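Minutes, project check-in

Agenda point 3 was the complex the collaborators sent over. CS summarized: two entities, 1378 residues total, and the question is how they sit relative to each other. Sequences were read into the notes so everyone works from the same version.
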Amino acid sequence: MNGHLLSEPECYDLLNRYDIRVPDYCLSESVGEALSSAEKIGYPVVLKIVSPDISHKSDVGGVVTGISSPEELESEYESLLIRINKRIPDAEISGVLVSEHVEEGPEVIIGGKLDSVFGRVITFGTGGTLVELIKDISVRLLPVDRTGISEMIDKTKISAIIGGYRGGEEYDRSALEEIIADAARMFLENEDIISFDINPLILHSNGAVAVDARIIISDEKIPADTPASTPPLLSAPEKFTSPQSIAVIGASSSPGKLGYYLMHNLLPFSGDIYPVNPRGGSILGKEVFKNISDIPVIPDWAVIVVPAKSVPQVMRDAGEKGIKSAVIISAGFKEAGYEGAKLEEEVVSIAKEYGIRFAGPNCLGIMLPYEGINATFGQKMPKPGPVAFISQSGAIITAAADRGIVGNTGLSTVISVGNQADLNFSDYLGMLLKDCRTKAAVFYIEGLKPGREFTEMAGKHAKELPVIVLKAGKTEMAKKAAMSHTGSLAGSYEIYKEAFREAGIINAFSLSSAFSVAGLLASEGWPKGRRAVVVTSGGGFAVLSADFAGENGITLIPLPERMKEELDKFMPEGWSGQNPVDIIGDAGAERYARALDILIRYQDFWDIAFVAASPVTSIDPIKLAKEIVRFSKQTGKMVVGCMISGESMQPGISILNENHIPNFAELYDAFKAVGLALEAGEGAGIFDE
Amino acid sequence: MNGHLLSEPECYDLLNRYDIRVPDYCLSESVGEALSSAEKIGYPVVLKIVSPDISHKSDVGGVVTGISSPEELESEYESLLIRINKRIPDAEISGVLVSEHVEEGPEVIIGGKLDSVFGRVITFGTGGTLVELIKDISVRLLPVDRTGISEMIDKTKISAIIGGYRGGEEYDRSALEEIIADAARMFLENEDIISFDINPLILHSNGAVAVDARIIISDEKIPADTPASTPPLLSAPEKFTSPQSIAVIGASSSPGKLGYYLMHNLLPFSGDIYPVNPRGGSILGKEVFKNISDIPVIPDWAVIVVPAKSVPQVMRDAGEKGIKSAVIISAGFKEAGYEGAKLEEEVVSIAKEYGIRFAGPNCLGIMLPYEGINATFGQKMPKPGPVAFISQSGAIITAAADRGIVGNTGLSTVISVGNQADLNFSDYLGMLLKDCRTKAAVFYIEGLKPGREFTEMAGKHAKELPVIVLKAGKTEMAKKAAMSHTGSLAGSYEIYKEAFREAGIINAFSLSSAFSVAGLLASEGWPKGRRAVVVTSGGGFAVLSADFAGENGITLIPLPERMKEELDKFMPEGWSGQNPVDIIGDAGAERYARALDILIRYQDFWDIAFVAASPVTSIDPIKLAKEIVRFSKQTGKMVVGCMISGESMQPGISILNENHIPNFAELYDAFKAVGLALEAGEGAGIFDE
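CS then shared the predicted structure for the full assembly.
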């Protein structure tokens, strides 16, 4: 988007209108004017070059501070112009700004930018010339309330200085909050502002002054974000996720063709399948219809695998037939260039005409394991379970369907989104919110647009349905962010992170982390708080637990005195008396049971329990697993199993699985999963009750 | 360790002796003296309170800068004393320092501390009053050479400012380097210094001035670290890791007793086993000897499982017999308190007397899978393989032996170190360095002491044997570090990290990360550099690869033009032309093969290749695996398989395993493992060739 920089006086005027104090100033075009301005303002004064061609004045020697007399002003005025002329010979000079000297104080930056995914965002942090070096910045999506502003300040290191660091001076935090709110209002009310930064804003013990600002204005107005206060649950037709009958257009009897794989994969489906192919005949024992119109019923779904150029006609036929849901697997659309994009537009308009909602094009298809539907050309179908997986990559779906990455977690709905020409991430989220079998949803997202619809819907329903996102494509974003400048200090990925945080979306760092958090939350629900207890007979696991808890924002509570006394009654002499509760290497399932009994009685003191064990001779894995199941049933808290072994403990792990208790084969992963849930839980408001 | 603070004049004197410039100063005990000092020094001057009770002068208002006239000095002198008297009424006041006003400039800190594990270390970073807030600090073990000092500066953010940030002034970096070297020399030559910090050292464009310093002196001298230039390969008896005959003292015929499990576990051993128990009889078909002296040969090992109090006598008997190696499994020593510690000392002295080297006490024992020896009371023995595991936790060994955590990696030597009363981590590392079957070594370490012996030995031999450490107990350290002060800004864990970095030790973050790097390096050796190529048919995996590469310091090379042209010849139209090389979703093993062929021809351009695939219908996993094997054989580079699936690709993964090509089931883990190796490789000097 093109834009131009406001001049310093224009910036000052705009800020003034929003009650943001700027220094007294006067634009002068000659040394004579400058002298009389300085007289009016009072010495000492500051001189600043004003030029539409210079955005970072300090960097080119365009600012002279501390001028304390007319003589000094005269000589500095002249050398300023000479210096600029030398360094940027072609710069157009609008004049020299004479402005009030502002008392020293901590320098902060307030910035704003129009993000292509999430719209207007505001940033706050340590300011001055070193802003990019220090990178002490926090970001919020607009609009933001006073609590949000306050949290934003708290997140930065400079907040400690503002509050009076180590007995130092305190600065006017409430004025700062006011100014951030004013700047946000300015950004929202002036729809032509693309980005701005006030830097430095100098804080004093009473008030603050915006000494410098850059505001970039576009020629067009970009409507301010008006987030729907109650995002609607966008919906596809009722039967989109529970079709009773499926037409396969482009079905084929030649192994190797997608239309064959699809038919093959759909065979186990108990509903009706109607292959369509102009050649007729039969495929895998099913009668083939030459035209959609020949099908004796109106199928709930049309799965389309014909070549791209035939898709418009197929969609028209499906529409005429009265079909309302389609899955377009065919590739050769937007992803293939200009012609493909035109074709895609045509398909969209036909779909609108007939009221068809569709997934794809250019996708792997959809799997609904509970319904026995594998409408993809992947090989395997996952086992049914509580986690949905919506993915912008088909390859990742094939891995997940094959129990790669997802581990032991079953899947409820698997959708390859393809080009999202019609149904998009928000629509799918809306569908999942209505599906009571889905207890957690994993999204693999490369690009999200528009972003707010998705994050706001996820945020509104976060308590009901935990949403986990693996956002790919960070690196390129990081690069882009690095190329742009201060106003966009918050690179796009930082904005994603903030949008996710606000919505309580879990920001996974890998596919397996996404599925392990999903499995955890699907079976245990959100943790009620950060207070955790660890019980283990492995000394090493106790030490590692303490580390991993610390790294993941999990609080290992100090054991209440009475609880310790009860443990003392049966624990071997010399036990640590601390949490992690190390019940010593010779412990069997019985000692675990006694310790867990005490945890049950003291369950008001904790929110999460980790039970870790390795295959030592004294432990019978089946007995231990049964104790963990009993424990889990007698608490309303999050119980995390960590039976760590390759083989010996499998019988115990199976018991945990059957009883929907998550088990982690690596302690690190268990704490990481809980940590990710806690991090997002704060944004989801799960601790507010 | 107790210590006292040097007064400011004492500090200045000491710094002066090491050519570190300090401001002109004079200690005055009255306002009259202060006035005449100021006259001598020249206005403006600075006043600073001098008191043994005040270490952070600025925090209590004990510093007044910019005093420009005698009148001002008089009034400030008085109010300084009043202020201090009000804030710290009991402070003993030695006087007021009048010192030269020092021109402004970037403020840095140079600190030093005596670490309990690694001895003297030096820190450098952003200084001033906000040093703990900003935490821009790097650390080096002493001694450090000029290259090390320069790297240390480069690691900090303030280095950018020193070099002239965004057209700003440049500061005297070579003076800074000189001063860091001087400070290091001061620390090494004055063996009574426990810690110091020079803060701020103010940098100018010509030279630098140490404006303030705190130096803490101990009453005793602590010898400076004199690192052995060639640390010897400490060694246990020749047969410690290849015993032919084993005596089990405390062998038992009662299932449930450790002495029984040990006998049971040792049965498959093909050498001779001599159970010893005063009761005689036979155990599991082996004749029992009533005394060690009755054994007809001199066994290579004595494995001891008698109660702690009997261990000294057993050790004496073993010594008399001529046994030179022992594994003391019995617990009840140092870990059990004062009495146990005394017992342990007795055992050590008996061992010294007879020249016995021993592992333990209080350990799980030792496993030597290649020899068929399981001298532990764990249940399972790992399969033999190239990775050694030395652990301070027995529980973790049981998990690893059971193929938990280690995954598919085989183990060469597994040692539970116990209390390390005799043989310690350094000894075991020494043994592994002599064992040609061990290609990588994993250490689980809770505490390391003395630290340098281990890290220096690892560092010296890093190219031959990659050492991977999981350091547990970080959190408690972090707490301790937080409680102490500036000189110890580098918390103990930061010092571990630095010691590991210098030695090329891989700093794993979890057990499974430790074993996955170990498996990778055991089969592939160190990577030769950071340049990587990714080949995959999964678009999502290509995008994720780019992210993960960025996060792990792995350089995805731009494809050379000629290479791209060769790929163009067979790649589907519209392929990205970039690295990651996305060979498109319909690729089979053949297209992988053609792409890999080109990688073979252009192998001078890259150091690491990732080949990623998921179970799509077009890929035959066995064919693909064979292509990866062929590829690996035709390059001398690191080849990383990422066949991502739960089930379908297992036949292919087995082929990779058989051919010692690492395979990762999660892309994130693959890049993380390579990233950890690269990070350590720099310190190990693997890129220097």
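Noted in discussion: Residues 433 and 601 of chain B are 36 Å apart (CA to CA).
Follow-up: revisit at the next meeting once the mutant set is ready.
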